[in-house]
Amino acid sequence: MIIELNQKQMDEMRIKIFKALADPTRIEILRYLKKVNREITCGEIGKVVKMSKSAGSYHFKLLREAGLINSRKESREKYVSLNENTFVKYINNFLESL
């Protein structure tokens, strides 16, 4: 069953997306995810972007809530990857600009 979002819901989602994209650290996270093109641990990204675990949790939460990343937890590790569907649906061609 496919559920169509009404215009208000689409606008609310776009607001979340643009708020998530309005930070250089989150752009750097997305750029790294695009570069590696695979699912990786939050810790690996934290080392590359040079941020603490608490800062990483904050940034990953905003990106996840905006639908820009997928995340899953396995044991004690959290894995993330780009959610390309959101980019295609709401901000087409943005990934190519990273």
Summarize the structure.
Residues 6-98 form the HTH arsR-type domain. The protein is α+β, with helices and mostly antiparallel strands. It has helices at 7-20, 24-36, 42-49, 53-65, 84-90, and strands spanning 40-41, 69-74, 77-82.
Walk me through the structure.
The protein is α+β, with helices and mostly antiparallel strands and 98 residues long. The protein contains five helices and three strands; from the N terminus they run ααβααββα. The protein has a three-stranded antiparallel beta sheet with strand order 1-3-2. The protein is globular and about 40 Å long.
Looking at the structure, the CATH topology is Arc Repressor Mutant, subunit A
Strand line-up of the largest beta sheet: 1-3-2
**Number of self-contained structural domains:** 1
Radius of gyration: 14 Å
- Morphology: globular
Percent of residues in helices comes to: 55-70%
Spell the H/E element sequence.
HHEHHEEH
Q: What percentage of the residues does DSSP assign to strands (E)?
A: 5-15%
Structural class: alpha+beta
Write down the CATH class. Mainly Alpha
Please tell me the CATH architecture by its name: Orthogonal Bundle
Pfam family, one: HTH_20
Keywords: DNA-binding, Transcription, Transcription regulation
Domain HTH arsR-type: 6-98
Protein name: Transcriptional regulator, ArsR family
Keywords:
98 residues; 3 strands; Arc Repressor Mutant, subunit A
